[in-house]
Design a protein that fits this description.
Elements (H helix, E strand, L loop, with lengths): L10 E4 L15 H14 L3 E5 L5 H13 L4 E7 L2 H10 L6 E8 L2 H8 L3 H16 L5 E6 L6 H14 L3 E6 L6 H14 L7 E6 L6 H11 L3 E4 L13 H10 L15 H12 L20 H9 L27 H10 L6 H17 L5 H11 L7 E9 L6 E9 L2 E9 L2 H13 L4 E9 L8 E9 L2 E9 L2 H20 L13
Parallel strand pairs: 1-2, 1-8, 2-3, 3-4, 4-5, 5-6, 6-7, 7-8
Antiparallel strand pairs: 9-10, 10-11, 12-13, 13-14
């Protein structure tokens, strides 16, 4: 970490577990949320927004349990501007060593008129009430004017001043719909600093969405203008086009300290591990050319680039792979490799697994090694992702035999383990994948609709593992399942079953009394 301190430090407010989970298909169960929270705390994240306690019993439980185990980071719960929401958040945060209540209400004309159906003065009253009520439970209260970048400046200043006067110690300025541009957003922060008389009593925060691809740039512009907290997510996960990506923000400050004299408390060497963890748990793969954490971020194929890299790595790399937790491979894995070497390889790749988990993954590694000539790091990562993070699945693929070819009918003979019981079914279909999915549907009896089926090769070659993505939709709920195997049909079955397990979690997250609207 960088030694800079004081006013140069930008607080990182991670909302992967709240805003990130609002992405269609990105539901997480309690155990997975705890894994991510522990990862975020170990990275040095200042504030972890653990959930929206009023949204569901699942969200309440997640915030409550994370509050018990996180001690260094502030644990935050989101609440609308109502006593019921705030009371629920406070109850969930009771075990927290450092609790924060984050309350919000819309302030833009379009939101006040069509969403809230309230007059500006009514909204102003709600701001004062909500912050004051939250302060009864804890000293650390954050307030957000939803859709701030489309809010009248005079009214925005009035609400910010009122929130601080009522006790808000952090004021977050969300670009809720990703509408603003950097100069405009920077000027908005400067305007607040100039016009709000008590602004010095609060930390200014940014929360930028990526609808125009400007979330990171807008967040940086906000910091340059005086903001000292950034709300962001791992891999930029979030609603619609996502949020500002934490890994990009951290490495911008770390790499360009000459132009941007700011830094964070984040241990950047854990970025890659965190990225993989979130991608695996949510089923949202990272695009290959994603900055910092994409598969190609430190890859060089063009001859002129390779020549430059061989002469000096700074010719085409502005940061080292090690700075984000990537290391050059030192152990070549194959079918003759033992458990000790395999355990060391997992550590090198950023995984710390228990003995039982290592045994399970090692067995699958040996199976793959018997089928493939070369075992790449990506193969091992796919095995870990597919095996370990499915530990809580109620439904598992036990065995699969498929009849395929030009002469039909194509047939799948499938056995699933459902809540510990083996269930077998044979089904036909319009192709082997359709037959496999029909067999799963016959056993599980679900009514979800298949919206996406996608196959990617983990590595090169005809013996490469296949990584399959499946998106299912049921009653407005959308989830993404992942599966990996050297057999594409087995990977397809694993992905489909993984999506069904996530749907089961999603069903438990239905809000009491109706759905909870998107927050800042």
């Amino acid at each position: 970490m960088s030694p800079v301190s004081g006013d140069h430090i930008v607080r990182i407010f991670d909302t992967t577990l709240r805003d990130g989970e609002q992405s269609p298909g990105a539901s997480m169960n309690l155990e997975e949320k705890i894994q991510i929270a522990e990862m975020l705390e170990s990275m040095g994240v200042d504030i972890i927004e653990a959930g929206f306690p009023i949204a569901s019993n699942g969200d309440f439980e997640a915030v409550h349990e994370i509050s018990k185990i996180v001690t260094d980071s502030i644990v935050c719960g989101l609440a609308r501007a109502s006593a019921k929401d705030i009371d629920r958040a406070a109850e969930a945060l009771k075990p927290a060593a450092r609790p924060r209540i984050h309350t919000f209400i819309s302030t833009s004309p379009v939101h006040m008129k069509h969403k809230l159906q309230l007059e500006p003065e009514q909204v102003l009253d709600a701001v004062v009430f909500s912050v004051s009520h939250a302060r009864k439970y804890c000293d650390d209260v954050e307030w957000s004017p939803e859709d701030a970048t489309r809010t009248d400046h005079d009214f925005l200043c009035r609400t910010v001043e009122a929130a601080i006067k009522a006790g808000a110690s952090t004021v977050n300025i969300p670009d809720t719909v990703g509408y603003t541009v950097p100069d405009e957003f920077g000027n908005l922060i400067r305007m607040l600093k100039e016009r709000v008389p008590n602004i010095h009593k609060a930390v200014i925060s940014t929360h930028c969405h990526n609808d125009l691809g400007l979330a990171v740039a807008n967040s940086i512009a906000g910091v340059v203008a005086g903001a000292r907290q950034i709300e962001c997510t791992i891999n930029g996960l979030g609603e619609r086009a996502g949020n500002a990506a934490m890994e990009e923000l951290v490495m911008v400050f770390r790499t360009r300290g000459d132009a941007l004299p700011f830094d964070t408390r984040i241990d950047s060497t854990k970025i890659t591990k965190a990225s993989k963890l979130v991608a695996t748990i949510t089923g949202f793969p990272v695009q290959y050319n994603k900055a910092i954490v994409g598969k190609n971020a430190f890859a060089h194929e063009a001859g002129i680039h390779q020549d430059g890299m061989l002469k000096h790595n700074q010719t085409y790399e502005i940061m080292t792979p090690a700075s984000v937790g990537l290391r050059e491979s030192s152990l070549v894995m194959g079918k003759h490799s033992g458990r000790h070497a395999f355990r060391e390889k997992l550590k090198e790749l950023g995984y710390e697994l228990g003995d039982n988990a290592i045994q399970d993954v090692f067995k699958r590694f040996k199976d793959v090694a018997d089928k493939k000539k070369e075992i790449f790091d990506e193969d091992i990562i796919a095995l870990v992702d597919d095996q370990v993070f499915r530990a809580y699945d109620r439904i598992r693929v036990a065995s699969l035999r498929v009849v395929a070819g030009t002469e039909g009918p194509q047939e799948a003979d499938l056995t699933l383990e459902v809540d510990g019981q083996m269930q077998r079914h044979k089904a036909t279909g319009d192709g082997p994948v359709d037959a496999v999915f029909n067999a799963i549907k016959a056993i599980c009896g679900h009514h979800a609709h298949l919206k996406l089926f996608q196959v990617n090769a983990v590595t090169q070659g005809t013996d490469a593992q296949a990584e399959v993505s499946v998106r299912l939709e049921e009653d407005g709920r959308s989830v993404v399942g992942l599966g990996a195997d050297t057999d594409t049909l087995v990977a397809s079955a694993r992905a489909y079953v993984n999506a069904l397990n996530k749907l089961a979690v999603k069903r438990q997250k239905t809000a009491p009394g109706g759905s909870i609207e998107a927050a800042p």
